[in-house]
Amino acid sequence: MLPIINIGPLAIQTPGLFIIIGIYISILVVEKQAKRYSLNANDVSNLIFLYLISTIIIGRLSYVFQFPSIFFENPLSILSISPSLFDFPSGLILALLVALIFIQKKKLPLLQILDSISLPLLIFLIFLFLAFFASGSFYGKPSTLAWSIPLWGTSRHPLPIYYIIGLLPVIAINIYLSKKNLIPSQLFFRTVFYVAILVVFLDYFNGNPNNLISEVNFLQVIAWLMMVLLIFVNAKSKVKENEISNFNHNT
Questions:
Q1: Do residues 227 and 200 make contact, with C-beta atoms less than 8 angstroms apart?
Q2: Is 216 helix (H, G, I), strand (E, B) or coil?
Q3: Does pTM surpass 0.90?
């Protein structure tokens, strides 16, 4: 699509630029969110920075383990910031362990932390999909629709654009719910639930055969499992909320 921007003698990799901008804006937003939840802004911004950097590092290492021959042929490509050489789903999931260790070490309130980082993570995803679109590494199935884009020898669904459009209302809902009196962690879990719905529907258009295991899209499977888990968590939260409400009413 637009992998490189030439500015005079400089050749800037557009995907990497989008990722850097996404990290920067996410940290700015998380600092404002920290104040809303009465959290230490430095701790929360360090957490989001650590999580995003861990996502990138783990995503690259996971890709190296899956496709080592690529890096044997060109070892310096391990330092490339091209999104096509990352396994971002694995990075996003496994980096949670790093984040949890940081939270435990700093003794931060986990539930409030989750709510405070929900919006910054959504914003980062917008820029991540912009990076995917610029690199052409996250592409849709062949299509003859009017808005199809030419990519890899045929016209395809602009899958990253679908995700960006889908994330915009999720961001609007997140901002709306953040003004409600929700119990801690509900904002985060609802946001994850809405993103999982996007994956279930939009990844049907994913044209990358590497996402298939025995003809089953593993990203959609993960999204379905996440939705079922969050429905269970939400049900338990409702029960707890009702118990607290009844207790306060009786006293």
A1: yes
A2: strand
A3: no
